[in-house]
Amino acid sequence: MQSISTARSESQILATNKVLKNTYALLALTLLFSAATAGISMTLNLPHFGLMTLVGYIALLFLTAKFRDSGLGIFFVFMLTGFMGLTLGPILNAYLATTNGAQLVMTALGGTGAIFLALSGYVLTSRKDFSFMGGFLMVGIMVAFLAGLGAFIFSMPVLSLAVSGMFVLLMSGMILYQTSEIIHGGETNYIMATVSLYISIYNLFLSLLHILGAFSGND
Questions:
Q1: How many CB atoms lie within 10 A of CB 39?
Q2: Regions of the chain short of the pLDDT cut 50
Q3: Which of 166, 157, 213, 181 is nearest to 20 (CA)?
Q4: Of 24, 35, 41, 76, which sits with the fewest C-beta atoms within 10 Å of its C-beta?
């Protein structure tokens, strides 16, 4: 019985390590691809996508989830992250057009990378289980999204800034939660794990950029 239990434990560890390895490999590729499409969008000076961003995001996220157990899932992951990169281009161009825009973008990018590496590294080394955060994060994201929508509709910059602050905390929590889910076997699909981490990084970057821009007087 002990040998069977040991063998099962070893197989679970191997499976978890495989999901973790595949997730980080695919995440790195999608981030590079997204950066490339953002660069293309900036070069072509594409306009803001507006409502199309939300519609395209939801549609591609649905297709990615639907085909997550097949090769098409990987295709739609790149479609999703490439599309999000395209929507990022106009935003970056708007910031870069300001006096210290390049510094703001680089600071937000560096901050995003530092937060992601620090939080992921903490979970991977401590092996702490953050599954308890799932419900709280879901509710928090819904509240922040609705508050952000209200800030946009009623043109409330202070509320918009507060929402960005909320998203920094929520996306940081999502990184802790998703990394924990991978190493503890709660998430066994590396495609969905990649999408979750990518979205967290994307929103974390935009939120930091918004906050930095607001305090520098560029928003």
A1: 14
A2: 1-2, 4-5, 7-8
A3: 181
A4: 35
